[in-house]
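Objective 1.3, modelling of assemblies. Example input:
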Amino acid sequence: MKSSFYLSSKEVFLDVVDAKEYVQLDRVSTLYQSLKDSVKKPLKMILLYGKPGTGKSMMLNKLYEDLKEQQKVVMYHTPLVDETEFLKSLARDIYGVRPFEELNFTQFNELSEHYEFESTPLVLLDEAQLYSSSLMEKIRLISDARKIKFVITLHKTDKEDIIAKEHFQTRIWESLELHNASSAELKIYIQKKLMKNNCFDVANMFDNKNVKCIHKITSGNYRDTNKLLDSLFSIYDWYEENQPTKINYSNISNKLIEMAAIKTGFINA
Amino acid sequence: MLNVHDLERRWLKYKIRSYIPISILLVTVIGISITAFSYFNSTDTLISENTIQQKETSLVNSTIKEKETSVSLSVPENTEESPVAEKTLVLKPSLRFMDNIEEGLNPYLEDENTDDLKLDLQKQYQQNEDIKYTTNKVDNFPDVPDKGTLSITTKKNESDLKDVIRRFKQNKNPALSLFIAKRYYELGKYQKSYNYALMTNEIDKSIDESWILFSKSLVKLGQHELAVVTLKSYLKTSKSSQAEILLRKIESGSFK
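Predicted structure (tokens):
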């Protein structure tokens, strides 16, 4: 069924952070290996930064999936803005303690003194730019005590650069920057994703011109590419249902890519 | 809800809009090319036109001189509207090229009324053997008969001549003054013919035809002796055969 053919392709590009959907590309793979190596080092903090949609959360998620069997790893996708809540979550997830009352920073340090691990527990904090300055200061102090190791992700903006400077600059051993994909990387990314989900025919429909067109629209941003392709396959699905004669099954149409870009707002028309 | 028709319409609009800058650029480039091409073309045309005009002017000058010479020799005295007049009319179209001829000339004629030009030839000849003429006003020119009865003109000829006089006043071209002198001579207006021949001589002393016409006008005005003296004086500096022939004719009385 051709209709399900495009629909299944559409589902591939749903914007969800799933380590199973992680696509290994040369540059990303190198970075990921660097991250894994850094985690093994006796570092206090590791900073993973880049523009939105460059795959920071995906990489963090992948790291979590890869390490969770080997050591104590905790991942917080959603920032815990309240300090007490954050400390209580750490006590619960790392030490298995569920404090009924308020847990302040001093109490948390006292608690951490009672526990020892073979390797330092790892806490992965996504969207760290949303944490308050005072909470970030507490995180810094915890990492300084070498009781917990943190890997945090930050959006690379001017504001977040300031946060990085203030709180992490002197303490971070390793900082890794993620970039948007090049045109060649984007083609591999799209095709690998499709092939992972058994959409081989659709994967073969993408040629360099299509990828260049997509890259021009999304600048190689993975999140934007997912969004665009999701929209593209919605349009394909509609044509398949209503006007199948207008579809070229051997190639992806740049016209439809541009229509998808208009639909998603990447092109203002 | 996916509205593909609306998307198609918006896509078409987007494509058209995306081609606008390219189209503007293309039109601008073509426009500049055409302007540049036409500009260089027009420059070439102007240059070639100027060249043609110069060539035509020189050709016409020589033609006028030749024709006027032959006409002056063949014009019978006191003729009415004759084939000669028609011949001179043939020259008219080519005269417009003379407008372009600007030569450094003596500020000879300040007074627009050429009829006011008077001569004091006798005095001049006494003072200097060289031929010199003045345009000083003399109230009583000696024995200059009025042969107004011989001036047969047509409306067309008058207007033609006025136009040439106007142009002569503008550019002081001796070819034009010689032409006017010839026309007046043909029309029997010897006084005016004499004046214009005199002006021509003043501008350019080397034109045979002008001296011949000047002498012929003097003869027609009854100044035979003065005409002979003039021709003899001229022949001292020139070897004009026509001047010699005319001198002989005047002296023998065959030219009256």
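Residues 182 and 193 of chain B are 6 Å apart (CA to CA).
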